[in-house]
Specification:
single chain; 294 residues; 8 helices; 0% strand; binds iron/sulfur cluster
Length: 294
């Protein structure tokens, strides 16, 4: 469902590459399983478990090249982290919910579980690329192996998984990684860094004027930065896991060295060629196309 281009350097690691959505090998699961409400992101309401009216019989989107112009901006932002193709081709071995309606309900319940597992794999894979995380490398590797193995379980076993418990285990390691990365960066920036601010998880900065703000080494986990003005802001070495960047203005902002930032978050924001991203992420096409900006 996402759109991006590769005019800028992009070096996702091997595990993260397999987490890229491959819609060609998916049975349109996000277009069926997820509900959406009529809003600036979706042109109309859709209930969970009902196919979007734009989903064609070949599981392709009938308006793929004009999603934004057609009022389906949310579809260009959503990322399944490769869960769609895993459920379609591995868990259900290429059987699709249209030709095999008997698997429909089970497949639709499995998809969000797989998405959570794949999202955790994305974060763990990133953590393993960070030299600062070396002290907990073994624990991260074990957690990644375990999470990858879980994605190959059969449908019944996947549905029995205690996902909140597994997420909590992984989250502890991601928090440790975050501390290691930000502590090391704080040492490097100590001469220019002001007193450490504690932003707290899920801080509400919706619509805030944060132009040229210094967020280096900040913990912004789960922060609401919807429509915030972050032009020229410095977010180097910040923990950005789960930050809501919808419509945030990132023009000229520096997000290099930030951790746990995803393409989906970037796709939901505004930016330009001067926005500096971590090397695994790309500048979305709509940042440069006046017809697709909204
Ligand atoms: S508009 Fe296209 S991409 Fe979005 S849910 Fe419908 S079929 Fe899927």
């Amino acid at each position: 469902m996402t759109e991006s281009h590769n005019d800028f350097s992009s070096v996702p690691n091997k595990s993260q590459l397999s987490m890229k959505a491959d819609c060609e090998n998916c049975f349109g699961l996000c277009c069926v399983v997820l509900p959406f409400s009529a809003s600036s992101d979706f042109a109309r309401d859709k209930d969970a478990g009902h196919a979007c009216q734009n989903l064609q019989s070949d599981f392709r989107c009938g308006i793929h090249n004009r999603l934004r112009e057609s009022g389906f901006r949310g579809c260009t932002v959503y990322d399944c982290f490769g869960a769609g193709q895993k459920v379609s081709q591995v868990t259900f071995e290429g059987r699709d919910w249209r030709r095999a309606p008997g698997i429909r309900e089970q497949m639709f319940y499995v998809f969000p579980i797989m998405r959570q597992l794949h999202e955790l794999i994305w974060y763990l894979s990133e953590a393993l690329t960070l030299r600062q995380a070396y002290p907990i490398y073994d624990a991260l590797s074990l957690a990644l192996d375990k999470t990858e193995r879980l994605t190959y379980l059969n449908p019944d076993s996947l549905l029995e998984l205690n996902i909140p418990e597994h997420r909590a285990e992984v989250n502890k390691l991601l928090l440790q990684t975050s501390e290691l990365v930000r502590d090391e960066a704080r040492q490097r920036y100590k001469d220019s860094l002001k007193r450490k601010k504690n932003h707290g998880r899920g801080i509400d900065l919706i619509g805030a004027n944060l132009k040229r703000a210094d967020f280096r080494c900040a913990n912004l986990r789960g922060a609401y930065l919807i429509a915030a003005d972050l032009r020229g802001a410095d977010l180097r070495a910040a923990d950005l896991i789960g930050v809501d960047f919808r419509d945030a203005d990132l023009r000229g902002a520096d997000l290099t060295e930030s951790i746990f930032l995803t393409q989906s978050q970037i796709n939901s924001a505004l930016g330009d060629a001067d926005t500096k991203l971590p090397p695994s992420l790309t500048h979305p096409l709509h940042w440069f196309d006046p017809d697709k900006k909204k």
